[in-house]
Specification:
This protein has about 500 residues and is mainly α. About 50% of the residues lie in helices and about 10% in strands. It contains 20 helices and ten strands. Strands 1-2-3 form a three-stranded antiparallel β-sheet, with helices on one face. The protein has a three-stranded antiparallel β-sheet with strand order 6-7-8. Strand 7 and strand 8 form a beta hairpin. Helix 3 packs antiparallel against helix 4, helix 6 packs antiparallel against helix 7 and helix 10 packs antiparallel against helix 12. The longest helix has about 35 residues. It is globular. The N and C termini lie far apart (about 145 Å).
Length: about 500
């Protein structure tokens, strides 16, 4: 019977013998070396037509894909790992110990002060914060060149304040979006590192089933994608494979062609005049006449921005930065109806929710369907295009940066072309007794004496400029020839009196 020591001795003898045999037999291949977990080289695999490499080292998760060769994938993974090790420590507790709602709160605190669309973004962020029972966010505009908003927090409450007139709409929305809200609640409490592409695809699919617009779904996905990109680049979080990318999304087709007709405008103005708030009608008239976005007069315009002499509203900020808004006579009257105030006082003191509620009730009374407040912008742009036939004037009205965007708001229809084709022709001019009485009448255009004089002067200058040099040269030559000829008679005050007409005739005969 062998003891433990004997087993150890025998084991040691065998091991030594094995080593001696390997040392004395150089032809024997060495034992394969096991890959160490601290080795920075990733073993790439081929996925489809490209190579993918993944590394998990020192708490870092590196994922590189889409490379043409194995060597390229492994080299890219090694470089990314070295880059991350050289960076600072991850922000906060990292993606494995931070819930999505908490991380989204920190993201909002860092990003929203500099975002022009912060007010729209917080409505989507606060959904996740409420589901996680965290304080919600509000932004307060501040005057600054770079910082636009100040971020503040409001204590979470189970009861949410609903603007007046939107109770029924909010209850319908809660029932309609119940399933997608449950999925958001799961995401809100999930660790960031555990959120997968499948989780986000489920949310997108559920929103499509609930009938959400493609643009609404796109904005939700954009928030998630921007968050994961920010966490990876700015916080050094190991989320290289953004789960909000590669999602099957519905095609966005949010182009509208709805324009308010003249007949609809009469009925709508009458219905708007019946609103209890007397500001609703002039505000809607201002939007229609100027083709402004609703946010521009509500959020940015003050009475000090109105230049009554030049008929221009100078917006200090808008979606496309500061711009000048042309004011028509109807727009100026609408401003007077709203009532001038102090220079630093806002022009419109009505919330968008109140305007939208009043708008909906007025459209019902006027029996007008499928007309949004933003369609007034289409209406103003289209009417300017029909009136001027000048796309650049339309661009000056709407403030768009590109003509491509202007074209989206000019919605000329076949009925508009029919009106032009069937418009009565201009009256034909009466036959003149003679050319003197006819004057400048031609093609139905009658010019004033001042206009006739201007045109005549321009024609004379244009037709005579080319011949002026030649005539002057001929006259100079004629003068030099006539001065030596006997036909030139002396004048009373010296010099010669030369008949240039006769001289030109003599030169012509000589040629």
């Amino acid at each position: 019977m062998q003891t433990g020591n004997t087993k150890g001795a025998i084991h040691g003898v065998v091991t030594a013998a094995t080593i001696d045999v390997a040392a004395t037999n150089p032809n024997q291949p060495p034992a394969p070396k096991k890959r160490s977990r601290t080795d920075a080289t990733a073993k790439a695999v081929k996925v489809g037509k490209t190579w993918t490499a993944r590394l998990r080292r020192s708490g870092h998760d590196v994922y590189e894909t889409g490379h043409k060769t194995r060597a390229d994938a492994e080299l890219a993974a090694a470089r990314e790992l070295a880059k991350r090790k050289a960076q600072s420590d991850p922000f906060g507790k990292g993606p494995k110990k931070t819930s999505f709602a908490l991380a989204l709160r920190d993201y909002a605190t860092a990003k929203l002060p500099y975002m022009k669309g912060a007010k729209q973004e917080i409505s989507r962020i606060n959904v996740y914060l409420r589901l996680a029972k965290l304080p919600t966010i509000k932004v307060i505009p501040v005057e600054g060149k770079h910082v636009r908003f100040k971020v503040e927090f409001e204590q979470w409450t189970s009861e949410r304040a609903v603007p007046k007139g939107l109770d029924a709409h909010r209850k319908q929305l809660v029932v309609k979006t119940a399933d997608s809200m449950r999925l958001r609640a799961v995401l809100a409490t999930k660790m960031v590192a555990d959120i997968s592409r499948y989780d986000i695809q489920q949310l997108v699919n559920k929103m499509r089933e609930e009938g959400s617009e493609a643009a609404t779904i796109g904005l939700e996905r954009s928030l998630l994608r921007a968050f994961f990109n920010y966490a990876h680049k700015k916080w050094s979080w190991d989320v290289p494979d953004n789960p909000a990318t590669g999602i099957d999304m519905p095609a966005v087709n949010n182009a509208r062609e709805r324009v308010l007709s003249e007949e609809e405008q009469i009925r709508l103005d009458e219905a708007l005049s019946e609103c209890r708030n007397r500001l609703v009608l002039p505000v809607m008239t201002l939007l229609r006449e100027t083709a402004m976005r609703a946010s521009e007069p509500l959020d940015h315009a003050t009475w000090g921005d109105v230049n009554w002499d030049e008929c221009i509203l100078k917006l200090r900020d808008s979606k496309t930065d500061k711009r000048d808004v042309p004011l028509s006579p109807a727009a100026l009257q609408a401003l007077r109806d709203i009532g001038p105030g102090e220079p630093d006082e806002k022009i419109v003191k009505v919330t968008y929710e109140s305007l939208r509620a009043a708008w909906g009730r007025a459209c019902q009374r006027a029996n007008i369907k499928d007309l949004n407040i933003h369609d007034l912008r289409h209406t103003g742009a289209t009417r300017m295009a029909l009136k001027t036939a000048n796309i650049f004037l339309v661009q000056a009205l709407t403030g768009h940066k590109t003509l491509q965007m202007v074209e989206r708001y000019v919605n000329v229809k076949a009925a508009d072309a029919v009106k032009v084709l069937h418009a009565p022709d201009a009256p034909a001019p009466q036959p003149a007794e003679d050319s003197k009485k006819a004057g400048m009448k031609e093609a139905g255009v009658v010019l004033s004496p001042a206009q006739v004089a201007l045109i005549a002067n321009a024609v004379v200058q244009a037709t005579s400029s080319a011949a002026a040099t030649k005539v002057a040269a001929d006259d100079a030559a004629t003068y030099s020839q006539a001065a030596d000829q006997p036909q030139a008679r002396a004048g009373d005050r010296g010099g010669y009196i030369i008949d240039f007409h006769a001289a030109r005739q003599r030169r012509a005969v000589g040629r």
